[in-house]
Amino acid sequence: MIKTMRFTKTHKRANEDTAQDVLLLLYLIDRAGNNIFGNNTLDAKIKLMKLAFLAEKEMIEKKYKGFNFFFNIYKRGPSSKELLQLLDDLCSQNLVELDKSNATINISPRGRATIKDFVESTSDKNKEAFQIVDSIVDKFGKLSTEEIIKLVYALEMTPMYGSGKINIGQAVKKDERKRLLMKLDKKEAKKDVFVSSNWIETINILMNPAFHV
Fold it and tell me: Is residue 6 part of a domain?
């Protein structure tokens, strides 16, 4: 029987949230180089999700509003349908390349030019966010998908707006569909990734097929 997930906490996505997620995910993929790979494309996507999960977890623990993805527990640990949808959109708009023959996820030249401009224009304001992503990639980027999953399963954490710590691996084993992470409310954040109105407009144009006719 499929369990129905009911959560008391939900969030509405603003254009700023989407821009933050697009730019940080592009930065993560670019920073990882050729290391987002797997036995197949699904495997590569799972590895990317786990890297993003670890980065978002660290940001939220530091009260830093960066990634805004929902992460719920599924069969292979913390997963985000939002992230997978965004990845599909990035591929559709030629910002990210999904190589099915080699099962890799890489930044495209267009995506690299975009994130290069963003980093150069905001490095002073977003230094801490970039450092968090750098640290996650340096620690875990070269691990296989299964190695990262094993590491994540060993983690104990308190789900956002939950009570008490859980072991992620045990929660997966028990099929406990818990929400682990979601967007940090600005009222609770000490800092957030700075995205100017010009960058929000830029991301809106890059991600909107209507502008590419």
Answer: no
Q: Closest by alpha carbon to 68, among 172, 160, 143?
A: 160
Asked if residue 7 belongs to a domain, the reply is no
Residue 168: CB atoms within 10 Å: 23
Torsion of CA 182, 128, 199, 187, to 10 degrees: 50
- Does any domain span residue 22? yes
Question: What's the whole-model pTM score?
Answer: 0.92
Cα–Cα distance for residue pair 155/165, rounded to 1 Å: 10
Answer whether residue 9 is part of any domain.
no
CA distances from residue 161 to 9, 86, 119, 212 in whole angstroms, order as listed: 8, 25, 32, 41
**Per-residue pLDDT reduced to its tens digit, 123-158:** 999 999 999 999 999 999 999 999 999 999 999 999
Q: Which residue has the tokens 């995205």?
A: 195
| Residue 87, number of CB atoms within 10 A of its CB | 21
Cβ pair 26, 49 in contact under 8 A: no
137 lies in which domain range? 15-207
For the chain, how many structural domains are there in total?
Answer: 1
Helices (H), the chain: 15-32, 41-61, 81-92, 109-122, 127-140, 145-153, 168-173, 197-206
